[in-house]
Amino acid sequence: MIKNFSQLVNQVKASQNNKIAVAVAQDADVLEALEKARKADLTDAILVGDRKKIVRIASMKKIDINRYEIIHVVEEEIAVKTAVDLVRKGNADILMKGLCSTATLMKAVLDKTEGLRRTGLLSHLAIFEIKTYPKLILMSDAALNIAPTLEEKIAIIENAVSAARKLDITNPKVAMITAVEKINPEKMPATADAAVIAKMAERGQIKGAVIDGPLALDNAFSKKSCEIKGIKSSVGGHTDIAIVPNIESGNIFYKLMSYLAGAKTAGIIIGAKVPIVLTSRADSDETKFLSIAAAAKVC
Prior knowledge:
It is a single chain. The chain is an alpha/beta fold and 299 residues long. The chain folds into two domains: 5-117 and 272-298, Rossmann fold, CATH 3.40.50; 123-260, 3-Layer(aba) Sandwich (Isopropylmalate Dehydrogenase), CATH 3.40.718. The chain contains eleven helices and eleven strands. An eleven-stranded mixed sheet has the order 3-2-1-4-11-10-5-6-9-7-8, sandwiched between helices. Strand 7 (173-177), helix 7 and strand 8 (210-215) form a beta-alpha-beta unit. The longest helix is centred in the middle third of the chain and has 17 residues, at 150-166. The chain is globular and about 60 Å long. The protein starts with a helix and ends with a helix.
């Protein structure tokens, strides 16, 4: 099991080098993250965007831009489509969001004829390393699916479990996060969804993971909390994957971990033909670097 980002980065270093296509690459943090990834022997990159801006930023950041292939495209939509085409045609293994909107990127990714969509659902996966927990925490979905249905939550779980396996978490423990651990279908329908999904997993309808819920956040990550509340759970206190009920709770979880708890953070889109590095423009170059490493690991 990979328990921290240092182990993850070291494993990616030891594997075959990946190539990443960056859509609208004229972003300082993105270029710094790519340079760090190149120097760490994680990935090479094709930069799609405004050549003059890319070169100017690289010069300011003392990045040797001659080590990168640049495809000059000024318009955002065309730059995004060009980056997607590179991946679709096998010239790159990972797609990365640069200085473009998430909506523009996802429109190109989801295009039925020229995109990167598989038959299933795409979802966002956040990965956290925090000093107060002994292993990585995976969380979904903080950025893509707004109010997932029961069926969509199952697809989100399946995507997350698939990624967890590539992080050497062979039988991940999945917590269905809600506000409380008691089932209240009338006032808190997410608790009912959680209970149904947990029962489905118990009966083998969802495979490859141990799933429990509903679990409040304290129950999911604190065994003592479970003991105090009388909750008997093989997941409680040992959670690998936290599945949140909607994008609001996921977004709050993500930003609390990143900005207040000091967690090291990565964010990727999974469920497409290749992993997609999708971080906020406000995220640091370290978060972008770790997201590149995570994407390379789950390729």
